[in-house]
Amino acid sequence: MSEIVKTVETFYESVKQHPNHRYMSWEHCFNAFKNSDNCDVDYLSLHLAFYLASWGMYRGSSALLWKDYKVHYEAVNIIKNYPSLQCRIGNEVQESQISKILSAKRDLENYYRSIGYTKPTKTGSTEGFVSATDTLITKILLGTLGCVPAYDRLLVIGFKGSKINKGFNEKSLKSIFEFINNNLVSLKEIQSRINLDGSYYPLMKIVDMYFWEIGRIQNPRLIEVD
Q1: Dihedrals φ, ψ of 219, to 5°?
Q2: Can you say whether the dihedral through the CA atoms of 101, 225, 34, 204 is positive or negative?
Q3: Which of 22, 27, 90, 112 is buried most, with the most CB atoms less than 10 Å from its CB?
């Protein structure tokens, strides 16, 4: 068994052995967006909001905490503009689509940065705009299209020692595709094992699980806050 297969299997089994584990919110959201042609924007926005909350994007310091789920309507419409990035069985995202991935990134960034919010404080209130971080944008893209890993702290820590740049940019994406090509046999092996459960996990999700688990092993204290 390769190190990649063993590492991803460890992560996957730790989730599956607990009913209704919060990380399963990714699977529910991704499956909803795979069938987006049959779902309205309201339904998809609700799935996206709960997934983001489960994955740490609604903690106390987040601007999104002060908005309801309907704030994601326009994000859903943006995602719908990139059907070719929707990963399915037989349709994994390709290196030739990096420009489209970055275009989706820019569209989502521009939208979220335009969202203002008001937060109550002890002396009144404070106002600001949503911070469209790499973490937020990549978690959205992973949860809806499955076309990139989520660049949170543990994943970035996991990138150390590899050739993958920690920033969500063209150079980093090219390195990820290189990693996929160099380890395709192992990645497809664990993908096939997961698929036996009846759940399709795209290769980018497998990459996400692999590097996230490496980051968790190296920094277990971060698991409670990431």
Answers
A1: -140, 65
A2: positive
A3: 112
> If residue 127 lies in a helix (H) or strand (E), which one and from where to where?
strand 124-129
Query: Dihedral angle at the C-alpha atoms of 104, 50, 72, 99, nearest 10 degrees?
Result: 0
- Extents of the domains making up the chain: 3-216
Is residue 76 over pLDDT 50? yes
CB atoms within 10 A of CB 56: 16
pLDDT mean over 132-142: 97
Q: What is the pLDDT of residue 223?
A: 60
**CB under 8 Å to 10, separation ≥6 — which residues?**
213
Angstrom distance (rounded) from CA 50 to CA 58: 9
- Cα torsion at 192, 194, 198, 200 (round to 10°)? -80
Query: CA 96, CA 75: separation in Å to the nearest integer?
Result: 24
For 153-205, the DSSP string reads HHHHHHHTTSS--SSSSHHHHHHHHHHHHHTHHHHHHHHHHHHTTT----HHH
Give the pLDDT confidence of 42-69 residue by residue, as tens digits: 999 999 999 999 999 998 789 999 999 9
